[in-house]
Amino acid sequence: MTSEVDRSVDNDTCRKLISLGYARSNRVRLYGQELQIVSDPFPHDEGGIAIEVTGNREPGTRTMRLPLSVVQVARKRPEKRVA
Question: 2-76: which CATH architecture?
Answer without folding.
Answer: Roll (2.30)
